[in-house]
Amino acid sequence: MVDNKSGIDVACQTDDWDDARMIKYRKMKRKLIDFIAKQKEAQTALDKVNRKVQALEKRNRKNQKQKAATTTGSEDAMDISQAEEDGEEDNKSDQDVEVEEEEEEEEDQLDEDEDVVEPVPKKQRTSRRRRPTIPRDENGKVQLPFQIASLNVISLGKIDHERPGFHNERYIFPIGYTVERTYMSMVDPNNQTTYTCKVEDGQDGPLFTLTAADAPEIELAARTATGVWALVIKKANEVRQKESANAISGPEYYGFANPLVIQMIEELDGVDQCARYSRRSQE
After folding, report:
1. Beta strand residue intervals within 25-175, DSSP E
2. Phi/psi class of residue 278: alpha, beta or left (left: φ > 0; alpha: ψ in -120 to 50)?
């Protein structure tokens, strides 16, 4: 005699199943039931959407007919159309009436959904960073040091407009100009350090010098800002056993391309006497 187990399909009652197999079977059965239920819900939702689409199409057709009737301006045509609609109403079967009533209900429901589901515009977050302003005293004079992102302006120096080598069409190189910037160390492959960048008097033109905080005994110098920073890159890559493939802009690393630095330099005395230089900041 087979001992039937309650709640189990007949297919599994012919064999003696252990508890583990029975638990696995029940889990699979529940998953199948849940899947069928979700499929039915999805189908119901799809049918509802299709009915709403049909209701919208019907409404659009009605609006187009009304618009066409309005533009013609013919009252007789409207009367005839109304009579035809009345005749169609008389000839409709009960089933057609029920279908139309369902469609009208769908239209009403669609109107309610449109009123409720109307999206509310969200406030867009502005990702613009607030531009720093130049610190000044009560007389409007620039106050230093001034931190601009990773650049720390220590001194603006003095403009030498008499010697043409201290400026060009794009930049002015004031004597004594000093800034600090963080970059890869030339002696420690695992850390960065602060470099002090200066513009010194090289007689016939500016001399750009660099010293590192973790190696003050090493002073690098070149006739161009890019040239002196190229030396830093070479040594920094050598200590890391990398090829020196970095490209760098010396004026940018010295801060000469920064709009705030440009503005501060152009406020120095003698900028208008620099014959080749064209002002870049907006006054």
Report:
1. 146-148, 151-155
2. beta
pLDDT, tens only, 107-166: 555 444 444 444 555 555 555 667 789 999 999 999 999 999 999 999 999 999 999 999
Task: Give, in order, the Cα–Cα distances in Å from 77 to each of 11, 59, 90.
Answer: 71, 21, 20
Reported as a single tens digit per residue, the pLDDT across 176-205 is 999 999 999 999 999 999 999 999 999 889
Q: How far apart are the C-alpha atoms of 265 and 173, rounded to whole Å?
A: 9
User: What span, in angstroms and rounded, lies between the C-alpha atoms of 222 and 229?
Assistant: 9
The encoded tokens of residue 150 equal 């990773």
> What are 143-146's contacts with CB under 8 Å, separation 24+?
146/260, 146/264
Q: Which two tokens stand for residue 89?
A: 């109403």
